[in-house]
Write the structure tokens for this entry.
Amino acid sequence: FTAIRGHRYITIENLGKYFDTVQTIQLVPLRIYISTQNGREYLLAYHYKFRKPMFFRLDNIRSITPGPVESRYEKYEGFADKFDENLWGVSTGGDYSVDHVELTLRVGDEESYIIDRLEREKRHGRVEAVDEHTYRFVADVYDAGELVTWARTFIGRIVRFESDNRYVVDRFYDDIRRMAEMYGGGDPQ
């Protein structure tokens, strides 16, 4: 936090992906995020070597050595702001490509709290009224898979779940189908 507030770059000793190596990495620390999937804390930092914002699990960072003030800090903050526009959680899906997602819901006369919840939880998405009782949540995110758990909380009101990421759509409807089988319901489509 001192490095973030002081606009300093840092050198970290970071455990590798499979915990068998320690990497020394120079970064510009920008923000702290918490995963929507598992609650882990991550540092969003500009990685000098790869020239892009990246996440680092805080519990994998073994040491931090602060460096001098980064004279281009505002530039890197701008990269983080742009990067954040398509985040749902902390996953980038690996390749930083963007998935389009649409969740259409049917809302009853006495359920304005559902619309309020959509507005409150939409993050960088938007909520559109289709008609008096139908609303659509639309977002472009790095990893549509991160939305699935949240979208499932609207079961019973979901008219359609769509994405240009076919794997995520198939997983969503497969989860619903399996749940319906477990509890004796019909086919969700």
In short: The first strand starts at residue 8 and ends at 15. Residues 8 and 69 are 4 Å apart (CA to CA). The radius of gyration is 20 Å. The helical segments are 2-5, 73-84, 112-121, 148-152, 166-183.
